[in-house]
Every structure is written in C-alpha cells, then in structure tokens.
Design brief:
five-stranded antiparallel β-sheet, binds iron/sulfur cluster, 17% strand, TIM Barrel, eight-stranded parallel β-barrel
C-alpha cells in the first residue's frame, strides 16, 4: 500500500505544477528540474517530492482506480449530517452553516463548542465536524512516519519525561547511518512519502551534522522531511531548509504566556512563536498546536490556542492530551478525558475548517486505543506512525506507556489501513493545493 497516489502533470503555473488525480486537479510546488507535462510525480504537503516512472505509476494507479472512488462513497455516507441533531441543536447547526459558507468563527463561538456538556449536543458537534472535514478535505488522510533520532534534551519542560530533569533515563543518539537505515526502511520497505525527524534539544548534535543528515536523506530517498528538534534558531532553520527540510513540527503548547513560562523555565512564549513564524516565512509547512489538560487551563484558553494556530498558518494541527510522567514535576496532575480531547479536535475543525489537517496524536491513542477512530469521526484526518527502530522507541519516553511503543511498523500500517478503509478514508495527501 502506498502513502501517496502518483499524479500526472497537466501543466505548469509559475513555481507550481498542475497535477491530475483521477480527474481531480491539484497544485503542488515544484522544485525538481526537467519535469514535463505527462510525467508522473508523487506530491506531499503541496510539494512535488519525486518523479515516478510511467510503468510504476500506472501499476499503482490501476490498483487505486476503483478503490479511490469506492472509499469516497463510503466516507460520504459515513459523514452525513444527522437531520435530527440539526433540528434539535440549532446553535451548533448554525455555526456549521457559518463554517460551510466560508465564514470564520469568533473566539466566543469556538468557546461555546468547547463548553458543550449535553451528550446529545456533543454527538451532533462531532457529527458536524466530520461533515465539515468531508466537505473541505474529502476522504484523504495523511499517514506520515516519525523517527525519533535522539532522546537527549537540554531543556527542562515540566511535563516532559525526556527533559534534562529526568536524570534516571537511559539516553540514546542515533548515528547518521542508523538514521539513514531507519529512513530507508520507512521509504523503501514500507512506502512512506513524508517523515518527521524528531529529537529533544540535543546539545551534542550540531547543525552541521543535521544539515548533512537532511541533505543526504533528500538526495537518497526523495521524501518530504519535517524537522522537530525544538527551538533551533533562525539561522539553523534557514540552513535546514536549504538542506531540504520542508516542514517544522513545533508546538507552542499553550497560548497563555504565564502558563507557558511556568511549564518552560527559562523560555518564553514570545520566543517560541517567533521561531514558528520565522519557519513559516522561510516556507516551511507548520505543524503546531497545544497540550490539552494543563493545570489552570480554561476553555477560553483552548479557544485562543486554536485561534493562534490559525494565525500561525498551521498546516497540520497537533492538539494532544497532557499525560503525566511520574519523574516530572507534574507527576500528580491528572490526565484529561478522551471526550475532552475529541471535543477540542471537533471545535478546531469548525474554527479552522478548510485550513488544516488535524492530527490524531499518539498521546490521545495512549489515553484510549479506540480514540483514534473517535477522533477521525470528529474532524481529524491525519495520523503519524512510529518508524523509530524498536530497540530505541521505548527510551523516547515523553510519557509512559506510549501507544504503538512495541508495534512493528508493518503492524501499525496494517492496523491503520484497516481502520482507514473501514471509514472510507484514503491514506493519501491530496488536500493541499486543492483548487
Ligand atoms: S518538550 Fe521537547 S524541549 Fe521540552 S524537555 Fe521535552 S523534548 Fe525537551
């Protein structure tokens, strides 16, 4: 199973190519030389990432031909709006109508959704969020991989199990060759087309080394690369972009400056936002978002978190639960409920409807394995699979008992594809550049 469908180039428009997928046209930024109309390419996140031979493309397309439309029908059926819910819960229905006509919700309106307690109204909210997701993004669901290349970190974030405060943790730093092998396996053995490279703020991994690693991955594997190394600074962001990285995963965690300062000693929300804004200015795709369930957090703050993600031109929203780690200062803070997280994802789908892909975080799946399905039926349309070598994975212990910690890559893929196909979702990345 591939994680992107090859498309055929129909034409060019400045730096964009127009790509045809079974009669649907998408735009993607082209950075490859020598492409011509009629060539087949893979595109991810709005970038053409690699050319593909006509023979390979046609073989893949023939397996997708009927399935592509069958899945769309299943999804359309499963995301129909409940007429009963619409008649009964008129406020949510009216907000849905507002979103569908392209208007933005106010912060108060997002807060209203976050404050819903009645179970019937909540069910209708989730149903309507799924409906909005289908209208704006059709049935595509991003399936990216993540490689956790080092668990060293110089920072002391209060909620994080791999922070420098956890002196009992065994640390690892994958060598460049080990990273290349993990990426090779993800791309060549398993078909991933987009990968996140993640670590703590590892003081011993130089930017020169990261530049080398990224440029080699780009040269050898033709995959869309996201970086997630914490705050690296403007100059490093520029160098890593030049090396070939095209996305940044960096959550702001909370839009409340005081709460941020309490969680991140010695750091400020202002600096975090400046880093994300700079990455966006450089052309990076932005994955960002917040933690839900922080002490003192209110629905007003979460509404502001969602609004802030929109202001940061977020490509993929990552809003996951705070999960306590026993060896952190926040060990005794309880985790939030699954229902609260899924409600926040649904509210975010309303507030940022056409703009974002919404991620089902590993944190949510750790709270409850069935929550992946619940979130996908409440407006979410992205998942990340852990492709870190198994012997390393357990040591990236940002919180205990992470979902999929012991699952082989193929097991994760099989489970994900089974779930997605059952919901009528295609594990593709076609929504960016939709015309
Ligand atoms: S959240 Fe990130 S920066 Fe903070 S301690 Fe954990 S790995 Fe380090």
């Amino acid at each position: 199973m591939c994680y992107a469908i090859p498309g055929r180039i129909k034409g060019f428009e400045g730096k964009f190519v127009l790509v045809d997928y079974f009669g649907e046209e998408r735009k993607a930024i082209n950075e490859l030389k020598g492409l011509h109309a009629g060539d087949y390419v893979y595109a991810q996140g709005g970038f053409v990432i690699t050319r593909v031979s006509a023979k390979e493309a046609e073989a893949t397309l023939s397996t997708w031909k009927d399935l592509f439309f069958e899945l769309q029908e299943i999804d359309k059926e499963g995301s129909k709006l409940s007429p009963w819910g619409g008649a009964r819960y008129t406020k949510v229905r009216d907000l849905k109508d507002k979103v569908v006509t392209g208007e933005k919700l106010t912060r108060e309106e997002t807060k209203y959704l976050l404050d819903i307690k009645d179970t019937g109204e909540l069910d209708f909210l989730l149903n309507a969020a799924n409906y909005i997701r289908q209208r704006h993004h059709s049935n595509s669901c991003c399936v990216h991989g993540i490689v956790e290349i080092s668990n060293y970190c110089a920072e002391g974030c209060g909620y994080c199990g791999i922070s420098c405060l956890n002196t009992g943790l065994k640390r690892y730093r994958m060598s460049a060759d080990e990273i290349f092998e993990a990426v090779r396996s993800a791309v060549e053995d398993h078909g991933f087309k987009a990968l996140v490279l993640q670590s703590g703020e590892d003081p011993s991994r130089t930017i020169d080394e990261l530049v080398f690693i990224i440029s080699e991955i780009k040269r050898r594997f033709g995959v869309l690369i996201f970086i997630s190394f914490g705050e690296v600074g403007k100059s490093a962001l520029s160098r890593l972009y030049e090396a070939g990285a095209r996305g940044v995963l960096l959550r702001f965690e909370t839009s409340d400056a005081d709460l941020f300062a309490r969680l991140h000693p010695g750091s400020t929300l202002e600096a975090r936002l400046a880093e994300i804004r700079h990455a966006n200015e450089l052309g990076y795709l932005i994955i960002t978002g917040a933690l839900i369930g922080l002490p003192g957090q209110t629905s007003e703050m979460i509404a502001r978190d969602i609004e802030l993600a929109g202001e940061l031109n977020v490509e993929m929203l990552s809003m996951g639960p705070f999960l306590p780690h026993p060896l952190t200062p926040m060990a005794n803070v309880p985790a939030p409920s699954v229902a609260g997280i899924v409600k926040a994802l649904a509210a975010a789908r309303f507030a940022l409807s056409s703009q974002v892909k919404t991620l089902v975080t590993t944190g949510l799946e750790t709270l409850a394995p069935e929550a992946r399905r619940e979130a996908l039926m409440a407006g979410a349309n992205s998942v990340m699979l852990n492709v870190t070598p198994l012997e390393r994975r357990a040591l990236y212990e940002i919180y205990p008992g992470r979902a999929h910690q012991d699952d082989a890559i193929q097991t994760q893929i099989t489970d994900t594809i089974t779930l997605l196909e059952g919901l009528g979702r295609a594990p593709t990345d076609l929504s960016i550049g939709k015309q």
